[in-house]
Amino acid sequence: MLDGLAAHRETTGAFLSDFTLALIAAAHGRAGQWDEALRYVDEGLELVEQTLERLYVAELWRVKGELLAARARSKPRRGSAADRATEAAVGCVRRALGIAREQEARSLELRAATSLARLLAQREERDQALEILRAVYATFREGFDTRDLQDARALLATGPPAAGRAASERSKP
Fold it and tell me: I need a surface site. Which of 20, 106, 108, 109 has the fewest CB within 10 A?
């Protein structure tokens, strides 16, 4: 991926590099390489600021939140340190959700809402988490075989409130 990014930058400059940096960061995160992962996501966010190309900025913020949460889970902390780590992760994902909504990027909004729902559920805010996700999920009319919608549906199936779940089930084809 790094070789591909270098070749891409040689031919097109920074164009769409933010997307590739998000993928590279996520890959490092899956390998548990938190510092490297966060370095790449921060590089992507810096690039967005420099170029004002905002196509994948919501995804960068979502990935950063996911990475911060995963790093916190891998290095259990107590008290205020754990609270700060969780708040930072939630803040990043909320920012991703806001940007995706602003851009009307529904797929990125769904991914951010799913991530936020998982994070809030861990903080004993399950009802709020599912309501946020349910509202986004209900806007989809097709694509229910995609992984993002399947993940969202599975998460919604895990808990209350039942009235909202029935409404989201009616929105399926």
Answer: 106
